[in-house]
Design brief:
Layout lengths: L2 H28 L3 H29 L5 H27 L1
Helix pairs in contact: 1-2, 2-3
Length: 95
C-alpha cells in the first residue's frame, strides 16, 4: 500500500466518523425548537457540502494517475481543511 492509499483510507475513516457525528447532531436538532433547528440545519448543510467535496476529491484521486495526482492531492488537502473549519464551527456552536 502506497502513501496515497494510506492517506485515502485515513480520510475515508474520518469522513465516516464525521457523518456519524452529523447523524447525532441531526437527532439532537430534532429535539430543539424550530429556531434552533434552523441554526442546526445551516451548520449541518455546510458540513454535508464540505464532506461531499472531500468525497468527490477522493474519487478524483482514485481515478487519476501521473502528474495530475499532485493537483488532486492539493485540492483534497484544501477541501479537507475547509471541512475541518466547518466541523469546528459546528462543534463550538452545538457542544
Amino acid at each position: 500500500m502506497n502513501h496515497t492509499e494510506i492517506n485515502q483510507q485515513e480520510i475515508k475513516s474520518e469522513l465516516t466518523k464525521l457523518r456519524a457525528e452529523m447523524d447525532k447532531l441531526k437527532a439532537q436538532a430534532a429535539k430543539e425548537t424550530a429556531e434552533q433547528r434552523v441554526k442546526f440545519d445551516r451548520y449541518l448543510e455546510t458540513l454535508d457540502e464540505k464532506s461531499e467535496e472531500v468525497g468527490a476529491k477522493l474519487e478524483e484521486l482514485k481515478d487519476t494517475s501521473g502528474e495530475a495526482v499532485e493537483d488532486i492531492k492539493t485540492g483534497l488537502k484544501e477541501a479537507w481543511q475547509r471541512l475541518a473549519i466547518a466541523k469546528q464551527a459546528a462543534k463550538a456552536r452545538f457542544h
